Amino acid sequence: MLKTIIRVGANWCAPCHLFAETFEKVSKIEQYKDIEFKSIDIEEEDETTENLVEKFKIRNVPTTLFLDENGEQIYKLSGNVPLKDFTEVIDNAINGES
Fold this sequence. Notes:
about 35% helix
């Protein structure tokens, strides 16, 4: 079951800034209130970020990770996607489709 959505980006990345707006809007939608929305900047030099980038093989930004309650990847989305497409992926992940 979908538990966490992590937006991975970088401060210097224009598409990341555009997608951040969509991500923020979606995080406030009532039907997604049980999902934890997090944002991580790959430029932050900490062990958690490095482990996340390595574990999920993040090569491009923005990348959005959809994780279950065990922190395992359900789906990975790359790029700046429109709000409609983003919510469709979330709905599919909630319903067990990927």
